[in-house]
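#struct-pred

JT: dropping the chains for the assembly here, can someone run the whole complex?
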Amino acid sequence: MNIVRAHILVCRGTGCSSAHSEEIFKRFEEELKAQGMADEVKMIQTGCFGLCELGPIVVVYPEGAMYTRVTPDDVSEIVSEHIVKGRIVQRLLHTEKDSAEVVADLSKTKFYEKQTRVALRNCGVINPENIDEYIAVDGYEALGRVLTEMTPEEVIDIITKSGLRGRGGAGFPTGLKWKFASAPAPVKYVCCNADEGDPGAFMDRSVLEGDPHVVLEAMTIAGYAIGAHQGYIYVRAEYPIAIHRLQIAIKQAREYGFLGDDIFGTGFSFDIELRLGSGAFVCGEETALMTSIEGNRGEPRPRPPFPAVKGLFEKPTILNNVETWANIPRIILNGADWFASMGTEKSKGTKVFCLVGKINNTGLVEIPMGTTLREVVEEIGGGIPNGKKFKAAQTGGPSGGCIPASLIDTPIDYESLAAIGSIVGSGGLIIMDEDTCMVDIAKFFLQFTMDESCGKCSPCRIGTKRLYEMITKITEGEGTLEMLDEMEELCHHLQKNALCALGQTAPNPVLSTLKYFRDEYIAHVVDKRCPAGVCTKLLTYEIDPAKCKGCTLCARNCPADAISGKVKEVHVIDKSKCIKCGVCMSNCKFDAIVKK
Amino acid sequence: MKSLAELAALREKAKAEVNLRNNGEDKIRVVVGMATCGIAAGARPVLAAFVEEADKRQLKNVMITQTGCIGICKLEPVVEVYVPGQEKVTYVKMTAEKAVKVVTDHLINGQVVSEYTIGTEQ
Ligand SMILES: Cc1cc2nc3c(=O)[nH]c(=O)nc-3n(C[C@H](O)[C@H](O)[C@H](O)COP(=O)(O)O)c2cc1C
Ligand code: FES
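RK: done, full complex below.
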């Protein structure tokens, strides 16, 4: 007899798993067993809730109480108080920043209230390792309807009408891509891009970890729409939890007959295999990805021919991003108009962003296109920590650009971001405060693209290297004003001449910081000064004689022996020895160390 | 998987499993007092009876939860029933058998079992 009266959901996304959520899960099972309640309370592991900053997350239903920052030691209290006596453990509930209000129901937090969850709808709701739970929330219904009630043309038509555009970066209309690939050919392929190479981005990982079946269902739908019978998911090997759940999902889907031969008794057959990537950024680029699946070194090839004509193994192929796939079944079930009703005129639907950097609510957010940056930063993100000022947001990772504070009311959609020199990209959203040096940020991304350049074409291989050398000189106080112009010229050259979008977009972080924060570059070049106090070569540490008490703490802790002075006398820093590590400053109890 | 009907049947079965996680506003809430006083007076079998009976009758719009001490410990086990749009009903001195009757009469047929309510005790 099944008399389950409560469900305990423990987040087993990568974020929470790294904070011991597996142990928490086990402790719950032990504790429930010890209390003789193992049968009446069901334990469920889920994918990411999106609030990783507050992880590990545990949600208890039917109340829907969300516990945050749970430790294994909290488990017995949750069981004995909440499960046995029905008293919600207030101390573990999420308290909204800048209000004393304790929020029990997670859907009522500011973080979730402004969000619209389409691609993430099942993340944190179902058990990703149980196909029945996916079926319970209408899983595979879209596939069933497509196969039994629709023609391939109708499927492509509904996707086209919905206005869905690729979520992997370029924003190409998905329906159009499918249409190009629908011309008759004996062998075709459907691929999923789960390479997710942008530093700091984890949207796709969260979908795969929280709702793997949605990708399988969507790819099978696409297979029917273009007439393909084989799919490949290219997922990076650094995502072990996602891979594990995908493997389970594929196995279950085969057992249930959602993959394999004669699906829904229609004679249509489709199967999916995984291919693991080793984490090269360029392998996320579509032609390099296909070259890699073919077993060759992951290098891009010139387009045209486009993959829809000649892709994987030289056969017509469609490749879509994980999040793009996650939208497909919902569009089939709810209709093109429903999807097109969300977002802006040309950017439809929702987009998942990884909100990271100097922001209170780090995590995963899904917002309708057209939501302003201000809403994301101030409302969903809960503002900047430590009372600092918002300086800029970086979107699109190494291929994107910066949005300065003056443009915080920009709506986030493809057109608006392109107009100000940035991109929506795959969904990285890095928030920066006044302590961030914009030259240093541009340098960080350049180093990334320089390292990740595959080397096949010289504009990218040599261009990113030269750019990096110049920007490094600037951060070290050796730049010149001519260098800024030279950098700009080289950037334009790269945009025009690189073989693939890695090189073509690598200059974007440089160009956009030069555009909006040129004064910071000039401060580095002319005044030999880093206004944010980040570029170490331009910093000096000094001791304020008026404040120094001669406690010797700094001298004793200095790893370079650069500080001298007698007890109870003013100390001095020898600038020729100082390595600018900042240890003295963080140790000084009298605020006597000044950084200039 | 051979047809949409087969999938629908599967879904109906699976839905019962996740239904608990859908705490919609339109549900009837049955709240069992489960503080030390309630448990000592036998609230656990009452709770179990509610869950079991609701499950047996496939009541999807009923949510059964617990709460702490309501403050009338001598009348425990106490159970409160919240039907959307109606005044709350408080049942006292509950037993597993009474719980079954509350499910059939009140939750299913909308008839408050007045002889178990707090009014009859005072
Ligand atoms: C250097 C580079 C890296 C890329 N990395 C990814 C990636 O990690 N994930 C992804 O989905 N698309 C990535 N893309 C975009 C893909 O080339 C391709 O446009 C996308 O997968 C198509 O799917 P969509 O139309 O659904 O967005 C990358 C592109 C470039 C140039
Ligand atoms: S991994 Fe748990 S909330 Fe993101």
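JT: nice. The mean pLDDT of chain B is 85. DSSP finds four helices and four strands in chain B.
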